[in-house]
Every structure is written in structure tokens, then in C-alpha cells.
Amino acid sequence: MSSYDNVLESLKKLSIEPNTVSHDAVADNKDWSAIMQPSGQVTKTLIFKPKTAKSAAPTPVVVIALEATETNAAALSRHLGLKDCRFANEDLLQSTFATTKDAVSPFVLSNVADLSLVHLVVDASLLSLNGADRLAFRAGANNQSVLISVDELKNYVASLNKDITEVDFAALASAPAAAPAKDAAAKAAAKAKKDAKREAALNEESHQMGIEYKKDLDFPRWYQQVLTKSEMLEYYDVSGCYILRPLAYNIWKEITNFFDGAITEMGVDDTYFPMFVSNRVLEREKDHIEGFAPEVAWVTKAGNSDLEEPIAIRPTSETVMYPYFAKWIRSHRDLPLRINQWCSVVRWEFKNPQPFLRTREFLWQEGHTAHLTLEGASEEVYQILDLYEQVYNDLLALPVVKGVKSEKERFAGGYYTTTVEGYIPATGRAIQGGTSHCLGQNFSKMFDITVEDPNWEGPDSKKLHVWQNSWGLSTRTIGVLVMTHSDDFGLVLPPRVALTQVIIIPCGLTVKTTKEDANKLYDACEDLAKRLKKAGVKVKTDMRDIYTPGFKFNHWELRGTPLRIEFGFKDMQKNQVTAVRRDTRLRDTIPLDQLETGVKQTLETMQNDMYQKAKANMEANIARIDTWDQFVPALNDKKLILMPWCDRTECEDDVKDRSARSSNDGEEEDERAPSMGAKTLCKPLVQPTDKPIIPGETKCVACGQDAKHYMLFGRSY
Amino acid sequence: MSSYDNVLESLKKLSIEPNTVSHDAVADNKDWSAIMQPSGQVTKTLIFKPKTAKSAAPTPVVVIALEATETNAAALSRHLGLKDCRFANEDLLQSTFATTKDAVSPFVLSNVADLSLVHLVVDASLLSLNGADRLAFRAGANNQSVLISVDELKNYVASLNKDITEVDFAALASAPAAAPAKDAAAKAAAKAKKDAKREAALNEESHQMGIEYKKDLDFPRWYQQVLTKSEMLEYYDVSGCYILRPLAYNIWKEITNFFDGAITEMGVDDTYFPMFVSNRVLEREKDHIEGFAPEVAWVTKAGNSDLEEPIAIRPTSETVMYPYFAKWIRSHRDLPLRINQWCSVVRWEFKNPQPFLRTREFLWQEGHTAHLTLEGASEEVYQILDLYEQVYNDLLALPVVKGVKSEKERFAGGYYTTTVEGYIPATGRAIQGGTSHCLGQNFSKMFDITVEDPNWEGPDSKKLHVWQNSWGLSTRTIGVLVMTHSDDFGLVLPPRVALTQVIIIPCGLTVKTTKEDANKLYDACEDLAKRLKKAGVKVKTDMRDIYTPGFKFNHWELRGTPLRIEFGFKDMQKNQVTAVRRDTRLRDTIPLDQLETGVKQTLETMQNDMYQKAKANMEANIARIDTWDQFVPALNDKKLILMPWCDRTECEDDVKDRSARSSNDGEEEDERAPSMGAKTLCKPLVQPTDKPIIPGETKCVACGQDAKHYMLFGRSY
Fold first, then answer.
1. Which CATH code, of 3.40.50.11810, 3.30.110.30, 3.30.450.40, 1.25.40.10, is assigned to A625-714?
2. Contacting residues of A for B269, CB less than 8 Å apart
3. ipTM
4. Which positions in chain A touch B246 (Cβ < 8 Å)?
5. Cα B28 from chain centroid?
6. pLDDT digit string (tens) for A593-618?
7. Where is the Aminoacyl-transfer RNA synthetases class-II family profile domain positioned along the sequence (chains A, B) (predicted)?
8. pLDDT single digits (tens) B645-681
């Protein structure tokens, strides 16, 4: 959404329906006064930054004035008791107001996390206009303006819960040191001095708090800061291991609740197998263990004693479990046998670790099942794949592409592998989101898991090796979620997996507020929380009295809290709360008598909006190509590629080589612009229907041989 | 409950209210006929065992006859086509009928797991009596009889869903080879032959299935068989590690759901810390680590590479977490900080492992919290202790004693330790069921976890070390549950933690049943299951057609399934189901139109009965003693001991030495009669009020010094 659309939407929330006008219309010889019938004025909005101590947070001054008013910065500075007001630079505009120089309007105030640090100045000559007079505001970096009435502007400003300073610029200009102005300046200076020490400390804290890197500019550092500053994750003194703090662990808990409920319904039972594996068992299936052996961690000592033989920590549990499958399955009546466990596994990777995506210990579930027939096994493979898709779509608000892995990419020792593939827009890389494998009879032959064929009608009996599946989903999910949804202000959490869905912040308290009034406000906030909690909403209040509302806004925004409810005296009078969505940062009001339904509806809408947005983004970044010369450019444009393919491993290897950007020095070199070659991601279950593959006619885009189906390619984590 | 009480209760379930009569009354010159006005007869019940193949299950014959009838075993054998009927021995009476020779009555049929293997013969002359005539039955190994009418006996037999063979013993005696008898014998013989092969196989399976050891006679082997044959647990090829199968894991899941919900409500958040700990961190708190060091497992290799320095697997997480507490807690406003994790920990014990009780890896939750004040910390310590008590009482139907550990027994590095102590009746040993520790400021001083004292009014600021708690509950709970509730027939599970609460078994199908009727019965069973599932009951049906109902009864009984619903054609006609409780093995009927409420009520009653029974048993086994000479005898009588104590470690050591039975060769020597000395278990929170400790007057029972309080002592796991 453009910032122009944002403006229209936020005004609409205040029941302000602005007219809009194209500047071209003005250029076409229609002047402003004609457009603004019966009467009105063009305006300007200016943002200044007074000089402050380097370590302190900036305290910008926003001036809303008539275009015609002469706004002298120096006079204004003196008047406000501030030092050296200068035009704010792009950095400040971006970081504090989420805007650019050519899109400044009063409405960027909605983007400000902490309005307590902002001085809001309104031109007295503007306020003296009639309430119905029209004002034209530039509303975005295009040639559009919006027209609203003076009263509507006043309503908008009131909705911010922010005191304004009315300034008579003409008077300022003519009498720079006039008495009233001097008084105001002196007052402001005194107040500033009084609060200086406290503010300095808080500013310091506030500064440390924010994300210092832009997602677009330094994605790896941004990712790291979002994780740590949101208090999702803590780095740990054993490399490749991380602490999952409550915010992160809760996401896993929600996934667990959903998925475990669904598989229980399917008839899968939970178990727990030991984390230790003997070498003998680990090595039973050679193909399989080859894939894991270099990463296996070995326990060789207990206390001061050496163990008789080293014992491995499970990297996955196929070879741990299947000897027992052989024991437990004695008849076809014991099938299907379906078990699952929630546990951690260890893969001691030596590549650079990355929180959630590549860690030496991670949490997952692993399901292991045995079936009488391939059909039975296959049916389950896709049921589970659907559940994984639901975890992504419905809980994490993330799109995935369901598909089947190529022979080269399938699970070591398995028969075929299905996958949900995610997409990280910032890096243009795909990520394997969860896999559901059909193992065929490979393991059952190795571990001798057999039953007598119940359908055998010949003499004696016939041994039948069972058909097996294994499927797993890990905490990697959380990494995909953070990388996709979060922004320069920090974490953005879909409501369904948020530990705290709603934060209530009392607003409008000043030094002048009586203790009685303050308590009234606090009590009212607690009442709101009680109502929401009763309605099943995960809600908290932030009553810490040493922090300003602005500080708290930042605090909870950084932590991805889906909805912020601001509640001040004006809200109280109007029987409403002000609610700000984390994803769009748009504010809205909810009438008090519709609090529960309003909040729940907003959370649901937000959940859905986040999914739709991510989905549209993924879809827009899957390039359909017809010729090879489109391949690398699309890849470098951070796209995944869907194209007719011959389904040959030789071609797959070739594509990887040909698409590697330059020297093949690994995927770590530059997170934003990886140079590694593209891999096959999956054969999507839903194949394009507009240009179906015509056998013998459609050619593989990479090699020109006959295409078998569409394949999704991409750089990948 | 005596078997006599059992009889009364099972008759009451059939709405049969028997009169009871003491044999003393008969001896006192009142003869039976006088007692049984208007008319009636004394009866006898005989149990014979025909000869069968050694490997086959016995097929006993139960004869209900008038006392006066001459019952010739040889003639009966010929009549039934069975070989050599002889009186059943005590073993068979106990294992199949749960009775003894002098307590045999028709009502022991209720105790039989598999009635399909039993022949039920009723004296024709008894059946020819008037329906209202009274019959006297011996009902237990005491001098009591019960009186019921002939009709009531018929009702009872009908409730068993078991066909009876009516035998005219007089005719048998006079015409041993009479035609009708011969026919019946020939028929029976033919049927027996036909089913021989199939039965032999099933009998073999059935034989393997049951528990071969008695709980009273060989507790360790009994425990092992209950765990493995019930399919709760599987032994594993790494010593000290076990596989938790669904039946066991589900108990842990129920505990998790309950406890996690409760602590979330308290404001505790879930986290996950890595399982690996660096040596440096592990050794930070010396006192603490001393307790764990000999059992720490060390990872020294990954793949083929040696690690730079060995890395430990957590034995507990105090030293893992607290460096981060120091980082996260920056102000008193961050307090209380409360986190919990569900994970596995490793303690590589070298003592004999025992499933659930002493394992090298086990599952637990560990809560770690920090508070501003000791009061705040202490309040939580006891809140958690209450929750642990609720886990035992409400979920596991087990009693515990809440109390405080002695100085000697408290957590290494802690301030004080509270505990819930359980009791294993079969061994007379106590077991520490869960501990909630106040760590005081020991760890916060070691890890420098401080805040500025918010209540300090002096100059500058004052650093305050936080007060910490840690608390843990493990899968050991499952061991206590199995050891306490289970019986010679296998596992007994309280309904609230059972994976399957109700098993529905179709009954009464014979070779004569038409396919249509069979399908009708199967469908009806599925309908029952659907209704119960909808009502929130965890229900399964056992429709396997190769197994007899009796086989299935054993199967599900062994697995502790709380309620068995038998549903046959007679039930269908009567619009009822027959329900058999696992704990009491009593049968009852539930009208079909009250199925849901009836089943749920029965499960609730069972849950409560199991708790009350275990509680009464524990209470009966806590001996109050006044003199030391009562101590060892009480201990050897499998009791715990509650007595006034001086609270001195020296005395505690002395008690242990003096109460060790003989050579101190460890607790492993004999599970049933451990010889190790008694430990202090806890100072119960609820102290006896009948003889309160009078300071300076009441003396320590062990040493004669002044007693401080009552202390619970016992042999302990």
C-alpha cells in the first residue's frame, strides 16, 4: 500500500471522507481556489529537528501551517525554547515518521511510535479559518492532494491524543521576543531542564531498544537484531545453540497444539524414544546414515569415566525406532502403526549457524508410521502435507507451495519426499518448510518389518514388508515467520501465535493529571483487560509509570504485539478505545460496547491480511519462464522460477552450475545477493493449467529435452 | 474390600438386595429352613478343571447346585465331553476367579476375565424351584452367607452374558450313558476338535500375554512385566534408557496439559534452553555442581572431529539459565521473572536403573523464577507444591504428604526444599514425588543477579540480590502410579490419564450368529463409541474377529483400560450395556439412554475411589511412634514413621545407621524387604494436633533431645 493509500485509509477510520485532487488538474489552469469551493487554503507541513545531545533521542517539531504563512525556524526555536530547529533529514523522516521528504503531511503523525517526543505546532491563522473551510494537503509522494475541512483536521489531531501548540507566526516574526512567547519559552525550558536527567536515561534505553539496521539494506544484521531485541531469542555460549525465549517458544507451542490435535484425531499416538543411539543401531541403514554421519554428536564420557563405547545423540529417529517396529508389528491387524514424538535432535553442522534456520540442536516433531499398502502410506503422506500447509497458512500467515522433491533432493533412504516450500522475499530464497516422506519398503527390508499378507490366497503364507512414512516439522518455521513478516520497527507476529495479542497502554497522563484521575484511567485499563481476557484474548496492560506512552509503543511494537490499545481521557469521554495494528500500523477506534467483538474481529482481519499480503508477494515472485536466458536474471531479481522441466538429475546439476553467479564460494558470502546456483525446490502439486505440458512437444527450458512437468527452482536455504 | 463386600456390591449393581446371615445364627440352633422362610435351600458352588494340553489355557467348569444334589465329577465329565474333571486347585481359583477355596460362590464369575473359557453348569433341581424361593450362598471366606431368590440368581447369571448348561444330576447318576447326554457330549467334542488349532494358537498368545508374577510375591519382576506387557514401556539397547510408548506418554501429556495451564495462569512463561552446557558455566556454582558432576554426560566428538572442549548435557538448568537471568533482570520492574521448560535431562547414574524411577534420561519440567523478596519467592514455592499435590491427587489418584526437607536432604545449593512424598505400599518405601526449592540468594550472589532496591530511601542506590526458586516434576510420577494402582492382572489406570478410557467389546457372537445379526451388533458398538466420543470420552472399539471376547477382556485389562463395555444381543434387547470397572473388576449395567452420563459418572467415581483407596492405604501405613524400639519393627512392617524429632543432622545420620537392617550392601539387595536405613522424608506441613510438640518437654524419639516438630521417616527410593 502506498503512503497515499495509508492516509486515505486512516482518515476513513475517523469517518473523514476526503476529496482528492490531482495536481495535474491545478496545472490545467484550474487554480486551487476554484477547486476548494466554497473557500479554503493550500497547506504545508514541515518537520524540524532541534539540536539535542548526541546520545538523546531526537525531539522533532511538526508544523502544520497555511502555505502562505511564513514559518521562521529560528523564531520558532526561540519561541519553543528549543535549540537550533533545522529541517529533519531523510533518516529521521524515515525512522520516526515512516515518510519521505516529498510525502510529508499531518497524517504521518499516525506513523509515529512515540508522540511524546514530538512537538506539534499548528498555525494560528489556519485554526482561525471557518470549520467548514477546505484545506489541501499533500498526501504522498505523487501528484495527489487530499482535501479535508478544518474541523476534520482538528478531529484528526484530537485522535492522536497529543497536545498542540498554537503559534501565531506573524506575531513571532514581528515581535521575536514578545512577552507571551518568552513566557512559553521559559516555561518549556524549565520543564525541559527538570526532566532532563530522567529523559536522558530513558532516551538512552529507547535508543538501545530500536532496530538499528534496515531490512532492505542489511538483512542479516536486521534479522539478528529483530530476534534479540524483540526478546524472542538469546545467543548462547555454545555455538549453534540458542535460547528460545517465551515469545518464540509460544509460537512453537501453538504449532504443537494445532498439529498434535490434528494427528491425534487421525489416530497417531505420541511417544518418547531416548535421545541416545548406539553406534550399531545408527549404522544399520547405510544410505540413510551417510547423510547424517558427519554431523552426529558423540557422548564418550560420563562423570570421569570413559564409556565402553561412544553413544550418539539422535540426528533423527528412523534407525532408533524401526527395530522396535519390527518387534511390535506382528500382524496386519497391528497396522497402521502410527507414532509421533516431540523432541529435540542434534546435527552438529560446521557451516555458519543461523538462528532457527541452521542450529545444532533444534525442536521438531517426527512422525513414523507403517502401513499395509503403498496406497495407505501415500494417503497419509499427503494428509500430513496438508497439515503442514495449514500450520503455515492458518497459524503463521505464510504461503507455501506443496510439491514433490526431485530424486536428487529426496530424503536419504526414502522412496519419495513431499515438501512445503516457503519463500523469503528479502533474500529471494526458498526454504524447505517441512517434509513428509514415503520411505517405501527400504527401511522395512533393512529392519525386517513384515506381516503375513492378509490377501494372500495361495498355499502357506506370504511375507509382506510394510510401507513406511516419516514426516517432520521443526522450529525452522519460526525463522521463516520472522524473516517474512517483520519490518524495520521490529517483530510482526500474526495474532494466532502471539504470546500477547493485545497490549493496553494508558495515555494522556501528564504532570497535571490528578492522582484520582490517573487511578481512574488505570482502573479503566484493567477493566478493558479483564473484559478481553474473559473473551479469550491474550491481553496485557503496561502500567509502568516511569515510561511514556511513546516508549511503551516502541517496546511492544518491537516485540510484534499484534494490537495496541491506547486508552486516554478523551477515549474515555468518547466511550471508545484507540487500536493500532502492528502490521499496517494503522489506527482505528473501537466503541467500548463493542470492545470484545471489535478486537477479535481486528485480530482475525489482521491474521488474514498478513497471509494475503505474504501470499500475493510470493505469487508475484514466482517467475514463469520460457527460455533459459530468463533464468539467471529472474533469480537475481529474487524470484523463484517455475518452468517446464525434463526431470533428469543430470539437468538439475547442470542448472545449478550454470546459475551459480560467479566463484562458487558458498552461500554465506552475501545474504542479500547469494550467488549460489539454483536447486530444484519441488514439482508443485498444482501444475499450471494455462500452458499444460504437452508430451513430446513441450521442451525442458534448461536442456531442450522433452519436459515432463513444471518444476519450481530457486536459490534456497 | 473383602471378597464378601465385593459380592454385596456386585449384587447391588443388579438391584439385588440380598439378606445376609451369620453362620453363627445357624449354629445357635436356628436351622437353615427357619432362616429361609417361606422356603428355600442351601447351595454349593464347585469349580472343576478338566484335563487340557499343558500349553493350553484351562477351561474350568463351574457348577451351581443345591447342597443336597449329588454331583458326580466323572459323570459330569462324560456328559460335557470333557476329560477328567477334578477340583480346581488354589492357583487356578486365584488366577482365574480371584477367590480362595473357602470363598467360592457363583459371584466369583464376575471376577473372570474371559468367561468364554468357562463352562457354566446349573443344577436342574435348583432351576425347578419357585422363582421366589430363597437360596443361601457362601459369599466369602468368613462365616457369612447371602440369601437371594432363585429369580435373582437367574438375573445374575443373565448379566454375565454367558450361556448355561442345565444338568439333571440325578438323571446323570442313574443313566450315565443316556442318549441326550451322549448327543451333547458328541457335539461338544466335535466343536472342541474343530476349534482346536485356532484355540491352541490363541491360548498360546493369551498365555504369553498375562502377568506371570504376583505383585505380592515378586514385586520387581511384576513391575517389569506390567510395564512391558501393558505396552507402556519398552526396554532399550542403551542401558538406563527406556521407550515411553503411547500409554505411558499420554500420562505425561495429561500432566503437562494440567500443569502448564496452571502455571501459565500464574504468569509463568515457557522457554527452551539448549541441552548443551559448557564446562565453564556448569562449574560456576561449586556446591551445586558437586551434587551432579559424577553423573554428567560429556559430548567430546562430532562426526569424526574432536571438539575443542567437551560439552556437557544438562543434568538440570540452574547454571545454564542464571547467567541470562543476570542479563535480563535490569530493574525490579522485571521481577518476578518466571520461566519454565519441558525437556529431558541426563544423569548418567551407575546404580541399577529402574524404569521411571531411576533412568539416565528422563522427561521433566523445570521452573526457574526470580523475585524481589523472600516472601514473594516463598509464596510461589508453596503454590507450586500445591500444584504438584494436585497432579498426584487429582490426575494420578495418588496421595502425597507435603512437607519440608531436612537440611541434609535439601537441594544442593538451595535455601530450603519442599517436597511431595509418595508411598509405594508393596515395598513400604517412600518416594520423592516432586520438589519445589527456594534457592534463596545463593545463586543470585554467584551469578550477580541484582536490582536496585526500590524501597531504599538512603543516598545513592542499594543493590539487592534477587530471591530465586526452582521446581521440578518428572516422569517418575508414572512409576509411582504403576506401582501403587496396578494389580496381578496388569496395569490399572485412573480414568483421567488413560489414553483409552473405555473399550467397547461386542459379545455373544457364536458360529450360529447370522452375518446380518453380527453386523447389527458391530454397528451398534460403533454407535455406542460415536456417542461416547461426542460426549468427550476417550473410547475405542475392539472389533477384531479372530479373538474371543475373553481374549479381548484380558488384552484391555492388562493395559489398564478403566472401563470395559460389553455389548451383546441380550444387552441390546434390554437396552443396556454391561460395564466392568478395571479397578474393582465389578460389573454393572448402564441403560442405553443414559450411556453418556452413566459412563462419565462411572469414570469419575472410579477416579475418586482409586484415590480414596490409595489414600486410606497410605494413612494406614504411617505409624505414629513414641519409643525408638517401635522404629525398626514399623519400618520392617513396610510403614513410614511419623515421630517427634530434634531436627539435627547428627541424629538423622544416626537414625539411618541404627535402622539399617544388617550389612549395608545397598538398597538393591531385595526390593521387597529393603534393609537400608531410614531417611528423613519431610517435616509435614500439617503437623499432628492430637499430641502437639511441647517445647522443652516433648523429646526426640530417636535421641531424647528436645523435639522441634514431627518428622516423617522411611526407607526411600
1. 3.30.110.30
2. 246, 249-250, 499
3. 0.74
4. 269-271, 339
5. 44
6. 999 999 999 999 999 999 999 999 99
7. 240-494
8. 999 999 999 999 999 864 344 444 455 556 689 999 9
